[in-house]
Amino acid sequence: MSTFSAPKGTYDLLPPESADFLAVREAISAPLRRAGYGYVETPGFEHVELFARGVGESTDIVTKEMYTLTTKGGDELALRPEGTASVLRAALQANLHRGALPVKLWYSGSYYRYERPQAGRYRHFSQVGAEALGAEDPALDAELVILAADAYRALGLRQVRLLLNSLGDAECRPVYRAALQDFLRALDLDEDTRARIEINPLRVLDDKRESVRAQLTDAPLMRDHLCEGCKSYHEQVRELLLAAGVEFEDDPRLVRGLDYYTRTTFEFVHDGLGSQSAVGGGGRYDGLAEMIGGPALPSVGWALGVDRTVLALRAEGVELPRADATEVFAVPVGEDARRTLFHTVTELRRQGVAADFAYGGKGLKNAMKSANRSGAALALVLGERDLAERVAQLKDLATGEQVAVPLENLTTEVLAKLNRPTAR
Ligand code: HAM
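That is the input. Now the predicted structure with histidyl-adenosine monophosphate docked in place:
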């Protein structure tokens, strides 16, 4: 223990569990890369105003959860609470929208929200996200949803449910908003919630308190107020998902915690996670580019939470294969053996074998313990007598079987034992 521990609401990723995080990032990003999404990386902090305007002045994220700071130069910055506003800012800054559309981008990184920490909710967390900028096409919304659903499936998750809704557009949402406000104003609600009715009435629909929920059963729904354009757009998205075999549940009460959404909105939830059940979410945000001072650029995207996806894997008992697990562990006894086997390990690694070595001059017994602990299939043991006979012992750690192999073709023998073709 040192004097310090990780700040509240954060945790460290350490081996062997950290391998699952890498595997999840890989499984989510691989389908995106195959679908033409290019990698984008933006700074970990931005001007506060970008998020205030982009995510929304009235959202919890902006009012309560941002880590803000004033630099020595007087700039007001915030650690990024999400990725969409930054990615859009970066694309507009680089004029990517002047080229071929849509611009399809993916990203992976750390995000920061000053939330009340609990299981699955952290102050520092990790997302992989995708944004498709500059096209209004139901097939693009469907593509993104399918890519996320396929990523969860590839990971072996079976209990992820997809909730789907449409939040309407600039034409029909204001009419619905007014109808919802009229309904909400007549209810028996506390002062904070009454204030929310005036600023962001849709968020009231998301209130988790039973006393509020009970009064919302007859609340008007966006679904019944969609204009013809939104209705037909949403129907096309639904049809494309059905045709792709992606199951979803229509959730007319699905409201997201960020203000920029229009039309298609969705969330992936996992029932094994308790109250923090959203493993990912996203939707269309046709007005965001203009909200941050750019041109009209209809866009759609999502972000999947890596931390919660790992929790979902644990909840379902899914074990991911460890990609770079040690295959061969070298155990030298004596200084000459060390030099010889160190060279062999380097050779094996150059041939693509995951190999490790008993460092620190351990005795045979301790070194064999390390070999067993490493999870390697094979141990390569070289003692003084072996060295004199110009052989090494290749031991199968599962069966205990051991064969002597000539030092001259050690690498070739190990590769053969691992069923690897020899590289030229
Ligand atoms: P979000 O729903 O705020 O959307 O976050 C996406 C995912 O990040 C959540 O479903 C959850 O898995 C994870 N997440 C969020 N907050 C936390 C937290 N405090 N601890 C652990 N995991 C968390 C967005 O961020 C949007 N930018 C998504 C998007 C992209 N929409 C369009 N494009």
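The longest helix spans residues 18-34.
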